[in-house]
Amino acid sequence: MHIALLFVYFCRYEQIISFPLTPFSVEWYPLAVTTLMQVFGTILLAVLVLYTQALAFRSDLYVRQTLTALHDKSSAWLGLGAACGSLWDQLKLRAAMVGVVYITAYLFGVWLLHITIPTSLNVVPYNATVSTIFRTVLGNTSMNADYASAYDILLVYDQVPTLGLQGNMVYDVIPPVPSASGSTTVNGSVYDVDCAALPFADTTIEAWQTMERSGQPNMTWLAFNLDNSSSNTTYFAALSIPDNAAAVFTGNVFDTETECNSPASYSYIPGNCWVPIVLLSTVDILDSTDSQAPIPGGAWRPMDPQVIVPPPIADPASMITAVQLLACNVNIMHSKVDVSIDTRTPALTVQKLLPKTVWKNWTRPADMTLTDQLRVAQNAPFFSPPSGHSSYRSIIVGSANVSIAAPPVALPGFELEAFQVEPIDENHVPNAIMKSSSTKIGYPSAFDVWLNEDLRIAADNRTNVTLAEIEHSLARALAATFWYGGKVNYSSSHAIRGLLMPESPATLITNITLNLTATNTSVAEEYGEAIIMVPVQRLRLNLSLVPIVIGLVASLALLILCMLVIHVPANARAAFDPKIVVDSGGLLQYTWLLGNEPHLAHVDSPELDNLRAAGMFDVSMGDHVKLRLSSRASTFVEASGYDEYELDSAESPLMVKE
Which terminus has fewer CB within 10 Å in the chain: N or C? Predict the structure, then answer.
């Protein structure tokens, strides 16, 4: 048994059984376990002693020994106290020292087991971890929100806590669980942007009048066909006329198919069709090999009208005659994210290097399914309001003919390669441009400001940016706006309606507020779930090593002692008769053995049942003792010739000669 307990202890199988920690369990469960172990130990030891004692008597009565030895060993089996008394008697008269020592040691081992068995198993409290379901705040929820306010986050991106947002990833937010540690798994969405060249876009980017953009009423926009290689294309782009010779601008893309959007003659309205994000750049865009887009005729596309950015916006004044174009597909990948329970942020925060990207031509993706997240992402340029970073910018738009495409150039001395014009008077702007130009007002949008500040074009005076940088910056901006859009849902001065002119056609034909549940491919709930291992106090069974080891040693000792006390010597085996069962040493057995009681002396076989049946007659121990002493004294006097005084002084008056 103790070997089995040792096996269970080292495997800790008993700790599988646990209980909730309650006032009732704290008070009663330890008592119940101790009581059960006590009852089990008592029954086990009682059976053990019963069989060992029976076997010991059965073998002991066949051994030739003195009656005193038989008495001492029989008395020792009455209990540990009686065994100690018999052991003390051996010091006075040594009759059965070895046998009494064995019996005493055996009963001492039983007493030791009686103590250790109840203490081997107990109930103890411990800190358990229980899997608990917590509600999470969804980073990718469906909502009805005015998305113009979502772009506020771009203006203070590095100044506010962004729990639920990390780089280009949006993830569900778990609640604070102070007592828990480790990590858990939540849902996350990773925004991936793939930008490519537009080799078949319109060669000359021409202006469309009265196109409107949020915060830029009555602006002249540049418009072009994304792919003029086919007459059936329905993708058109509309971008604000650039107001900075070193910047990247986002544009709107719309589909003229009536089932998706309004016709091109109307202001752009967000629809239900997939479209890319188009970028216009006035700085070089290079890939990982430091190469420009491999487009026939060069990466720069001429635009009409041209733009002069006058001082103090540009000093010296600069002219924008051509731009570079990009089309970017947005892919949103859903995955499981490991989140630290302590910080509630993703467990892995290793900064990844930007991937190596090389130029390729833009194509439509294989999967053009439009989800809520993707709908918001692809319409980012339309929804982005003015940044508020600065006041409007005045630019001069002219219609001079340009023979070759050229990047933005400064105007030192008003001598331009593309424009062979001479300055008139003291005007710092060429008169040839002034005569056919008009002043336009530009409001830099929050999205464009974020893009240029994140790329550090002005801060580092950069003349080029890489394709990978643009993709990463776009992905971060899209993730941030969707994340923040899930946190706000209000109408204010930031709302799109407030940014449009009252006479705007858009305000008359549609409500710009996004209803993100309308096109959701899978309806999302307001809250999600995360499983967190929470520590709680519980009770469990626990084995103690010391009582088990002591019990094991005691059990092995009892096994050896049992073999010694039931052993039949070789010289006594001939007289051993297994048919005659004498397995106890009581008054009946010894009376029969000595043959002094005729009722018992006539019993053929000394089984206990036979002796008990024969012993059903009345006796008076006091009368029998007096009679026996008197009878033996008279017999002794007659045989020896002693008088009464000498009889009283004799050493052994009860000795009878054989």
Answer: C
